[in-house]
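Feature request, filed as a ticket because there's no other form

It would be nice if the structure record came with a short human-readable summary line next to the tokens. Right now we just get the raw output. Example of a typical job, pasted below so the devs can see what we mean:
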Amino acid sequence: MRIFLGYRHILLIVTTLGVLALWLSWAFAAPSISNVSATPQLLRATVTASSVIRYNISEVSRVNVSIYDAGSTLVRTLVDATQTAGSKVTAWNGRVSAAPNATITAEGWYTYEINATSTSGSDMEQGTIYIDTSKPGISNLTAT
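Raw output as currently delivered:
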């Protein structure tokens, strides 16, 4: 009898009669999303270039990162692709599309939602970003 412990805890027991047992400790584990953050959380759309959304996924997954307004209406999809495990980064500039002169969204709170899906399940995490569309101003100036 030979016992093999391989990549990602695959245990294979082989006897003279063939494979006796195959144990996969991770085969049915859903992907997990962790270390989710957005910086800055207050995006001054007329001044700040973008808010950077960071996250980590545990395994190869189909990933979707989308932005929703306060009424849960989809505003923009930032990521819709298969991604490998590890740390990921995407950015949102407060606009409704990637076009250079796309409309800036209305002022208010927006939810970013990260979904990771594989054949063994899915995970979802979310956070918020506030869009401030006010123009920068100058006040309290005195001349002497």
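Something like this underneath would help us a lot:
Residues 33-132 form a domain with the Immunoglobulin-like fold (CATH 2.60.40.1220).
The CA atoms of residues 12 and 22 lie 5 Å apart.
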